[in-house]
Amino acid sequence: MRVTADRNCCIGAGQCVLTDPVVFDQDADGVVLVRVERPTGEAADRVGEAVGLCPSGALRIEHD
Amino acid sequence: MVTTPETPVPASPTYPIERRCPFEPPADLARLRDTGPVPARLPSGQDAWLVARHADVRAVLGDGRRFSSDRGHPAFPRPFAEAPTQPIRPLSMIGMDGAEHTAARRLVVGEFTVRRAEAMRPRIQQIVDERIDAMLAAGGPVDLVEMLSLPVPSLVICELLGVPYADHDFFQRRSGMLLRRDVGGAARSTAMDELMSYLDGMIAAWEQDPGDDLIGRQIVRRREAGRYERDELVSLAALLLIAGHETTANMISLGILALLEHPDEAVALRADPSRTPLAVEEMLRYFTIVDSVTSRVTTEAVEIGERRIGPGEGVVALGLSANHDPASFEHPDELDLDRGARHHVAFGFGPHQCLGQNLARVELAVVFDTVLRRIPGLRLAGAVDELPYKDDASIYGIYRMPVEWAEPGCE
Ligand code: SF4
């Protein structure tokens, strides 16, 4: 699976970073950065949780 | 009101819904979740739809396009009997939609990232320790709200913004008035005006020599972006000042009350502070102090639950109800510090979700851990059902909370 973020609609709430601070990060302006595009194992589960928590709908999971 | 004929609208509930005890959500909420959205008459004389289910609340707040935050719209729900005597200057980004809102939020959200909030932890710890030192030195019984719940977030937001804490009486009184439902329109306007002129004077002075605090950095940043307007910054500062202390202060009081009422949970948390972050999430869910501040107005015809709602109608998203929806939370009315449910809407949802949430999380975690560790013998000096709860305010909490403590070792 691959996780992508739409940086235009991210509102910088940081839910994703709280959920997995390795996969997700925020730049100096608070906008999401995806550090690990293809997380596996438990990180992949946490990414699923982050997608559900993201208030702006900025995160997407694509399954290959 | 537009409704489909086959779904008759149930009898109008009263709104705001009275919430007397923090440990018992109003029974009406369960009924509202069953019926789906119903119209209610607001103290302002307006009609607005009450949305009570967790999924519906998320759908409304998550869709900034069809549910507008335009507080200037005549149908935007106002929970106050009297309108302000003059139009209130919009409190910054909370009244904006779409790209305008995103741009305004982008200018400042970098100040509130998870990392920035974490970086403030040592200073927050220091502030909490100093307040607890003062409380222990004063000796019980003391008012926890005055000694701890209010000063902690107030000191934090003042330092962050660069506003002198010495003036806290002045702005706490005014922000407190703005949040009470029983304050008249004229008094509300005056309180807002005084708060705004105070900040305006301060910011005007800082324009010459912006310091290294949030307001100073905003002056520089907005100038560089070619969009510095003092009014905008004054509104932002007022929003952060009001939102930054009333909310966290009330959560501190209620959270500590919850720990006092659930001694077993308190003991378990004291033994393993790594569980505190999830305990904080559960307290946020359980109490949901910002309940009906999350109002919207429809921009087009929409369907919520089974009900069709026309364009230009007011909608009130009931956060407390959403967070106690059994469809989304098992045994929702039980406080379970190990629940681990983070999909609550205590910070709202969607594009307007609380800007300061990560700062609030750190403040709450530090306070709860430190109180558990340093005052294990803390107890209420009085009865829990006799505390003055904020039934009359837009943000729920406790006005005063007398506490005392057994000396360590004497428990
Ligand atoms: S949770 Fe969503 S809105 Fe918040 S920072 Fe992450 S991507 Fe952005």
TrEMBL record, chain B:
<keyword id="KW-0349">Heme</keyword>
<dbReference type="InterPro" id="IPR036396">
    <property type="entry name" value="Cyt_P450_sf"/>
</dbReference>
<dbReference type="InterPro" id="IPR017972">
    <property type="entry name" value="Cyt_P450_CS"/>
</dbReference>
<feature type="region of interest" description="Disordered">
    <location>
        <begin position="1"/>
        <end position="21"/>
    </location>
</feature>
<keyword id="KW-0408">Iron</keyword>
<dbReference type="GO" id="GO:0005506">
    <property type="term" value="F:iron ion binding"/>
</dbReference>
<dbReference type="Pfam" id="PF00067">
    <property type="entry name" value="p450"/>
</dbReference>
<keyword id="KW-0479">Metal-binding</keyword>
<dbReference type="GO" id="GO:0020037">
    <property type="term" value="F:heme binding"/>
</dbReference>
<keyword id="KW-0560">Oxidoreductase</keyword>
<dbReference type="InterPro" id="IPR001128">
    <property type="entry name" value="Cyt_P450"/>
</dbReference>
<dbReference type="GO" id="GO:0016705">
    <property type="term" value="F:oxidoreductase activity, acting on paired donors, with incorporation or reduction of molecular oxygen"/>
</dbReference>
<keyword id="KW-0503">Monooxygenase</keyword>
<dbReference type="GO" id="GO:0004497">
    <property type="term" value="F:monooxygenase activity"/>
</dbReference>
<dbReference type="InterPro" id="IPR002397">
    <property type="entry name" value="Cyt_P450_B"/>
</dbReference>
<dbReference type="GO" id="GO:0017000">
    <property type="term" value="P:antibiotic biosynthetic process"/>
</dbReference>
<protein>
    <submittedName>
        <fullName>Cytochrome P450</fullName>
    </submittedName>
</protein>
<comment type="similarity">
    <text>Belongs to the cytochrome P450 family.</text>
</comment>
